[in-house]
Design a protein that fits this description.
The chain is an alpha/beta fold. The chain is built from 4 helices and 6 strands, in the order E-H-H-H-E-E-E-H-E-E. A 4-stranded mixed sheet has the order 2-1-5-6, with no helix packed on it. Strands 3-4 form a two-stranded antiparallel sheet.
Length: 104
């Protein structure tokens, strides 16, 4: 399972700060997804696509959120033997107040 957080100030493991503050950790974080994946014996990759600079310098392969995701896919996931264990990958992300799921 690949988890991609929303845009803006949220970081790896968060869906939306608003949900964490106004609702609870189950709605605002990716923890329930990680727990369920672990329970099912699935691997989990948590992306941090909003982390694009370190010490004021752009991180190579991560200048933009989309570039970060592509770099992670190309460098770590695409050719992983574990990836195709069950013949598909689940990609989940949160944006604009809703969750989306993509089976690949």
């Amino acid at each position: 399972m690949i988890l991609i957080h929303g845009s803006g100030v949220v970081r790896a493991g968060q869906w939306a700060r608003r949900l964490i503050i106004n609702e609870d950790l189950d709605k605002g974080t990716q923890l329930p997804y990680v727990s369920k994946a672990k329970e099912m014996g699935c691997g989990v990759v948590v992306l941090n696509t909003n982390y694009n600079k370190k010490d004021g310098e752009v991180i190579k392969g991560s200048a933009r959120p989309s570039e970060h995701a592509i770099t992670v896919w190309e460098s770590f996931i695409k050719n992983s033997k574990v990836l195709w264990f069950r013949n598909y990958t689940v990609v989940t992300w949160y944006e604009y107040d809703h969750y989306d799921v993509l089976l690949m």
